[in-house]
Each structure stands twice: as structure tokens, then as C-alpha cells.
Design a protein that fits this description.
By secondary structure, the protein is of the alpha/beta class. 55% of the residues lie in helices and 11% in strands. Strands 4-3-2-1-5-6-7 form a 7-stranded mixed beta sheet. Strand 6, helix 5 and strand 7 form a beta-alpha-beta unit.
């Protein structure tokens, strides 16, 4: 796996996926990238980053460019930094089978088409990075409803929610014969419309009561 970005999203994603058994072969931050086909020890990298404030100088990997991180030989690529980093040129060079969009809008529209032609499976940003929004909602409910949750309970609810939404979006996309990005947008719009209908019905009933 390769991760572009070592901020709040990228660093945590790398650490969590390493815990699940993934091998991180490349990672980058604003100062540059590092690559090691045999794998990068993320805990060790965190220690180096804390001491130096940068990935540069990490002794157990080769320095590389941001483009080399995005186009390296890996199964999963997670662009988790800024928008529009996966350009048409980059998309043509991507070797990953899965692109998990941790950042907002990391892939430009033309690149989406190229990745689709290469049969790259894309997990769209509004689904892939929705976990942060859901946990913010859990924080809100804890405050407003005085509902206390342990870290384990939060993680379970997060995992259950994300797994369910992924399956729903995937089934919707397959059923409509849409690419994942288009399917995700369509599914989101339908769910939003249904929510508005429910709110509208409730408001009408309230006014008529």
C-alpha cells in the first residue's frame, strides 16, 4: 500500500492499516516521500517524524518524489493530502488496483475516466473519508444526549456504519451500472432527498396537528 499524505488522515490510515496487516511500501508528506518495497515500519516512522518534523532523513527507506509515491507498485493507493493530485498524467501511471480517496477531491474528472478504463476500483472521497464526520456526530450525541461511549464502542459503531454504507453504495452502483464515484453521488442524492421528504412530512404533520 502507498499513502500520499502524513497528516491527520494519512498517518492514522497508515498506522491502522499496518495493524490490520497491510504493508506500507511508500508514503509522503509536504517535504517529500520515502519508499521501501519491503515495507516501512510506521511506528518507527512516527518516532522519526516526532523527532525531526519530517519524513526526510528516515534511514530505513529511500527518498522519492510525491509522484513516485502515487505511481509506485502497490495494491492500494490512498491519496490523503490535498485535492487534484491524481491528474490525467498520474492516472495513466498508477499501478494500484484500488484507489481509496482519503482527501477531498484528490482525483480530477479526466483521471477518473482513465482509472475506470484501467479497471481501477475507486472508493470515492465522500464515502472513504466519511468516518471523521460520523465520529463527530457520535461526539455530538455524547454531548447532547449524555450518552457515554468507550473507544471500543465508538470504533465498533464506526466500523459497522462504514461497512454498511460501503455495501449499500457498491450495490447501488452495480445495480445502476455506474462507476463507484457516480454511484456514490447518486446514492447520496437519493438518501438526501428521502431525508428532506421525511422532514417535510414531519413539518406538515406538525403544522396540521
Amino acid at each position: 500500500m502507498a499513502v500520499q499524505g502524513f497528516g491527520n488522515v494519512g498517518s492514522v490510515a497508515a498506522a491502522e492499516l499496518e495493524n490490520f496487516g497491510a504493508k506500507i511500501v511508500a508514503i509522503s508528506d509536504v517535504t517529500g516521500g520515502i519508499i521501501n518495497k519491503d515495507g516501512i515500519d510506521i511506528k518507527q516512522l512516527f518516532k522519526h517524524f516526532k523527532e525531526s518534523g519530517s519524513l526526510i532523513g528516515y534511514p530505513f527507506a529511500k527518498q522519492c518524489t510525491n509522484e513516485e509515491v502515487l505511481t509506485c507498485d502497490c495494491d492500494i493507493l490512498a491519496p490523503a493530502a490535498t485535492q487534484s493530485v491524481v491528474t490525467s498524467d498520474i492516472a495513466g501511471k498508477i499501478k494500484a488496483k484500488i484507489v481509496a480517496e482519503g482527501a477531498n477531491s484528490p482525483t480530477v474528472p479526466d483521471a477518473d475516466e482513465i482509472l475506470a478504463q484501467k479497471n481501477v476500483f475507486i472508493i470515492p472521497d465522500i464515502l472513504c473519508n466519511a468516518g471523521g464526520v460520523f465520529v463527530s456526530y457520535l461526539e455530538y450525541t455524547q454531548e447532547t444526549q449524555r450518552e457515554q461511549m468507550t473507544l471500543e464502542q465508538v470504533n465498533k459503531r464506526l466500523n459497522d456504519r462504514m461497512n454498511a454504507k460501503f455495501e449499500q453504495v457498491f450495490e447501488y452502483s452495480q445495480g445502476k451500472q455506474l462507476k463507484n464515484a457516480s454511484g456514490c453521488n447518486g446514492y447520496s442524492c437519493e438518501q438526501s432527498c428521502r431525508s428532506d421528504e421525511c422532514i417535510g412530512c414531519f413539518a406538515i404533520r406538525f403544522m396540521l396537528a
